[in-house]
Amino acid sequence: MTKVVVTGIGIISSIGNNIHETYSSLIKQKSGIGKIDILDTLHKDEFLLGEVKLSNDELIKKAKVDPSFPWTRTALLGVIATKQAIKDAQIIPNDTALVSASTVGGMDRSEIFYKDFLTDAIHSKYIDSHHAGNSTEMIAEQTGVGGLITTISTACSSSLNSIMFGARLIKNGITNSAIVGGTDALSKFTLNGFNTLMILDKELCRPFDSSRMGLNLGEGAAFLVLEEKESAILSGKHIYAEVSGYANSNDAHHQTASSENGEGPYLAMSRALVSAKLSPPDIDYINVHGTGTDNNDLTEGKALLRLFGDKVPLFSSTKAFTGHTLGAAGVIESVISILSLKNKTVPPNINFSTPIDEIGLNPVTTIIKLDSFNHVLTNSFGFGGNDSSVVFSSFENKKESNKSNLNSNEAKPVYIIGASTISPQNTLEDEFFLDKVEVGNDKFLQILKPNYREYIAPKLLRRMSKIVRMGIVSASQAMKDAGITNPDAILTGTGMGCQIDTEKFLNSMIENREGLLTPTSFIQSTHNTVGGSIALGIQNHNYNLTYVHRTFSFESALLDGLLLLKENEQRNILLGGFDEITEESWLIKSKINHYKKEPVVNSDIYNDNQKGAQAGEGSSFFVLSTKKTENVYARVRDVYMFFRPVGQENIEDRISGFLCKNSLELSDIDLVILGNNGDNKFDHIYTDLQNGLFLNNATVRYKHICGEYDTSSAFAMWLGARIIKENKIPASILLSGKQNEKIRNILIYNHFRNINHSLILLGK
Amino acid sequence: MKDIVEKLKVQLIDQLNLEDMEPEDIDPDEPLFGDGLGLDSIDALELIVLLEKEYGIKIQNPKDGQKIFFSLNTMAEFIKENQK
Q1: Nearest-CA neighbor of A268 among A543, A564, A531?
Q2: Which end of chain A is more exposed for a tag (fewer CB within 10 A), N or C?
Q3: Quick one: fold of B2-82?
Q4: A313-323 per-position pLDDT tens digit
Q5: What is the pLDDT of residue A197?
Q6: Burial of A749 (0-12, 13-18, 19+ CB in 10 A)
Q7: Of the candidates B17, B48, B53, which has its C-beta nearest A462's C-beta?
Q8: Domain positions in chain B
Q9: CA torsion sign, A539 to A545 to A550 to A553?
């Protein structure tokens, strides 16, 4: 019965640069929202923000980091909060995991330099700081985190989901400790985006008040150190609270608005209580999402009434203190909840005077001291209907009857029972298995466009960009292949997310000088758009997470899926990885030699002398199940990610260790699928393995058929699964070595520029 | 009025990416939202920007949109009354 406790806290937001300042502001009822001083926007005098009142240079000093690095504000806030948390917990994080969260990642720099990226690229060092996982990697490098690292992006619920995933990693024995949280800096992109939705209040926000007119945005970062309870006690750690329950649900109603009766919020809260083995009267205080928008507060209130009846616990929104900090909101409010629990003090919902007619709920408006305070619930809800709740319980008052059977489960075999992929090849056709490869001389490889109208209603199609279309079609084909209609969870991974929509909004914001912007591309630029749209389409209210950590994105989603199936909560899981290529994103990344500058024939990429890889795109979906069906492709035995290994020997050690953990030897591996992408600066790592560790193994390459993209390992998994199912290696994928008669075990190895390395093990 | 309605049809199809529709498919009395053309709250926000961009009319409260955007005719009426 593993339990997870909080042993360290770090926080920076508009109400304080550390935990003490934060608590002091809450007690003094001092809001951090005010006039705009830091963000360089044309709306400076129009809106109020919850800014951290330090310039980037001041943040660099505060974080004690090398100023020559390509710092984004998001990463700086994250480093400051993480360093505090590590110091507070007194850990040396060399095998600690880091699960972070962010909505727009390095947008605070990209939006300033975007046109330069496309032309002279004087500021090219910031190009690779854009992706949502960048701040996580900067944090890991600055703090010496050596365990698993990943990043979640599910809009405004992101960092509650990273707390949940970190706790599950510990419960499942993947790690003993995890640093979890999120970071988001203010950007013109988000300010203008929320402005197009007309949900920004120009005055101070008034959550749960009948006169509320919208939200105020804020920025910040917070991180918690989570540890396994017994080892935390043994090492004499100060324990803040126990992470006693959590849940994520999908509202499946609308891209941005909550359903009338708050279905998603209701399910998130009630499932979190079930997970904590608590009932509604056990909750002493709720830190609500309470953004101050018309829609959120009304529907969240309705969900509270549905769950708690006429006994709604004390509740308050603290967003009138901090502003809505988006990807950091969940963890910032978790810190406030934990401080509240620890001090038996409930923070007030400031700026409230009159309850909302339809619900008549009164939040706490003054500081309340409680004699007994055992359990606090906190909510975060995001675009794409992504709703999460987490329960923290006081450590002294834990109910010992709370037996969790999580880690007592034997790991059951996990099968791929459905698969579908859209790629630059004709792979959507069922019978076709790469008999013939499309060869072309292009800058990048684009998907063979399906006739989307056969799959998606025109009314829905009109707003969807390429990535959403290909995601939805490959997801529905995978489910059809598996013979299921509604999975128990939807897990997605994308390195760059919805690039077309992001570029569209960014370009028009720059060109129109922050005026006359429309909401559609902003809404769809969120990373969880595909996962949310799938849920919406099939009315799926279950667990729905999106991982956005470069070439760890798909692997993280896969790991989450394997854990869910092990935890016995789910039976069928829809899992996908997807990325899209655009002219602009290709141009930008070719400037930093990630992509080749001149067209190349894809069948020749491995002999091409230009720097970089040939870019590609695609979407691959799978149905994973613990129940074997007639349509079974293969077993997914394990997945492993490692960050910045030191030298080739270390890579070989990691691979050997991974096989050993799975009780396999190299001779048991019938085929190795290698991720060579034609970038001769880094492909030698694969070649050295072929001449070393894999000397006696058959190997194949695949990126000449799909191109290089962050989630191309999902395509490799599709390839491996079909090879095992059909016991056939298509001639088109360049076999070296001798093919074994029977293909039972396949190892997939990919790395991105020797930074992010991953292994996926398939079996028969 | 009729001119505004005809112009609006084209602008609507363009702004909302109604790929399958021709101007003559839209009945100016038909409700734009719900059972009619089937537009939603995101489209309403797009239409607010359309009014500002094409006709110089600013709507401050998105709730006002419900009445104004009931149909193409109500929209044209509103434009006629508010255009300077």
Answers
A1: A543
A2: N
A3: 1.10.1200
A4: 999 999 999 99
A5: 96
A6: buried
A7: B17
A8: 2-82
A9: negative
Residues A659 and A725 placed together within one structural domain of the fold = yes
Nearest CA in chain B to A512: B53
pLDDT greater at residue A308 or residue A438: A308
Does residue A336 lie in a domain region? Answer: yes
CB contact at 8 A, A483 and A631: yes
Distance CA A565, CA A417 (A): 14
- Do residues A368 and A245 share a domain? yes
* pLDDT > 90: percent of chain B: 73
What is the predicted pLDDT for the residue at A590?
97
Residue A569: predicted pLDDT: 67
Q: Does A485 lie in the same domain as A380?
A: no
Same domain, A127 and A219: yes
**Predicted complex ipTM:** 0.95
Give the nearest partner residue to A516 out of B18, B40, B53, using CB atoms: B53
Q: What is the mean pLDDT of chain A?
A: 96
What's the domain range around A106?
4-405
Structure confidence at residue A738 (pLDDT): 86
How far is A679 from A658, CA to CA, in rounded Å?
26
Query: Mutate which of A294, A456, A459 to disrupt the B interface (most B C-beta within 10 Å)?
Result: A459
Measure B52 CA to nearest chain A CA, in Å: 8
Contact status of B45 with chain A (Cβ, < 8 Å)? yes
CB contact under 8 A, B18 and A462: yes
> Residue A183 pLDDT more than 90?
yes
| Residue A379 shares a structural domain with residue A424 | no
Number of H helices and E strands in chain A, helices first, is 23, 27
A434, part of any domain: no
Q: Is residue A585 part of a domain?
A: yes
Return the residue of B nearest to A463 by Cα: B17
Residues A115 and A195 placed together within one structural domain of the fold: yes
Confidence bin at B2 (pLDDT 50/70/90)? confident
Per-residue pLDDT at A686 exceeds 70: yes
CB-based contact, B19 to chain A, within 8 Å: yes
Q: What is the CATH number of the domain that holds A755?
A: 3.40.47.10
The verdict on a CB contact (< 8 Å) between B49 and A518 is yes
Q: How far is A213 from chain B (nearest CA, A)?
A: 9
From the list B16, B19, B49, the residue facing A458 with the nearest CB is B19
The answer, yes or no, to whether residue A312 has pLDDT greater than 70, is yes
Tokens of B49: 């920007």
- CB < 8 Å to A458, chain B: 19-20
Task: Give per-residue burial for A294-308: e unless 16+ CB within 10 Å, then b.
Answer: bbbbbbbbbbbbebb
| Mean pLDDT computed over A42-57 | 98
Q: Which residue of B has its CA nearest to A255?
A: B42
The pLDDT tens digits for A623-670 are: 999 999 999 999 999 999 999 999 999 999 999 999 999 999 999 999
User: Is residue A196 a part of any domain in this protein?
Assistant: yes
CB atoms closer than 10 angstroms to residue A166:
31
Number of structural domains in chain A: 2
pLDDT at A400 over 90: no
Q: Are both A496 and A535 inside the same structural domain?
A: yes
pLDDT digits (tens, 9 = 90+) for A153-162: 999 999 999 9
Query: What is the number of CB-based contacts under 8 A between chain A and chain B?
Result: 36
If DSSP codes are grouped into helix, strand and coil, which group holds residue A522? Answer: helix
| Chain B CB within 8 Å of residue A463 CB | yes
Question: Given the DSSP bridges, would you call strands A177-184 and A97-101 parallel, antiparallel or unpaired?
Answer: parallel
Pairwise CB contact (< 8 Å): A198 & B48: yes
Q: Which residues of A touch B53 (CB under 8 A)?
A: 516
Catalytic sites of A, residue numbers: 156, 289, 324
